[in-house]
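Dear support,

I submitted the protein below through the web form. The confirmation email said the job was done, but the results page showed an empty box. After a refresh the structure appeared. I'm attaching both so you can tell me whether what I see now is the final result or a partial one.
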Amino acid sequence: MNGLARKASFLAAGFALLSGLAISRPAAQSAAAQLAAAEPSPKTAEEVYENIAVFKGVPYGQLIPAMQLMSEQLGVDCEFCHDAQDRALEAKSTKHVARKMVQMVSDINKNTFGGELRVTCYSCHRGRAKPGDQFVLPGTESQPPSVDTDATGKPTAIPSLEQILDKYVAALGGAAAMQKISSLVERGTVTVIQPGPVLRVPFHVETFAKAPDKRLTKGFSVTHLGNSPDAFGVYNGSAGWLRESSGPVRLMFGWRRDAAKLEDTLNFPLQLKQILHQLRVEPAERIGDREAYVVSGRTPFLVLVKLYFDKDSGLLMRLIYYVETVVGSMPSQIDYADYRDVGGLKIPFRRTVTLVRGVRATYEIDEVQHNIPIDDSKFTIPMPLPSLYR
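What the results page shows now:
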């Protein structure tokens, strides 16, 4: 199908579904599948949001991550620049200053570094609303790992990429054992900590995964923002959709779809080399009192993914993925702990997700089931189909 015909089919399917026309259920599902599978040309920020000044022409999907990253780089919340009720209002002078600063950073990168993103808000602000003018000695909390030596006193070499990944699969239980697991259901609770006076009590979460590439989460979405009993995220191998808190259902495009694959406990380990590209071994690092071998790579929509494998056990300790924005790369971090053997497979029963703006969510798994029937209807696109962009 050529581009024009594909676009016409895409729009026809969307119009029929979104306008509530009386079409049969099978026809609606077929049209929805076509619409979900079609990757639309990204709209720009000004086509989706109101009162865009300096981010004109930026893909709309980058705008919110960019705003979140800027707030983290300055150590402020959204209301530092925006009205709490209407983000489009121009009442605050800090919004006008922020626009000038964004333009200044853009000009520096363009005129000094040939357009490369070398300078960001963090270059000066370092987590403060007002940039500091005094040098601050670096802390000692980040230590280089110890250096292993052989019998002659020479440093031992870091294992190869293949050795690190093979040890990871073996530590989980081995490829043969993992291939026997066709489905995985996890149930537990999540507790969210975030800035502000709101007290978040633990609530129930569930995950349903099916080989080779299906996953559904209840109680949280792939972004882990707005965790609530009404949040969910679904990925079915070719398309995905999510809802944060009780907001609207959105189709899952770009980096969110890539992140869903990374977070899939059942399917990711054996598909790691297919999901991640440009894999390489980085210098070892220390996490707390543990040393880790670090492997980096990327996906089509995530500019950098870093995997930290425990030097002794081989298990995955930490996953960090970075979303590219016009003001820098925004990280999302997941720490894995409390691995337990369930039917021959090691499962991390505690996962701590750390995000920008001081958000941290701790997932405690209480129950794990293998190889139970999961109907494919759990992964079908919801009806009515949501809006593509809002």
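Response: this is the final, complete result; the empty box was a page-load delay. The chain has three domains: 3-37, 45-125, 161-379.
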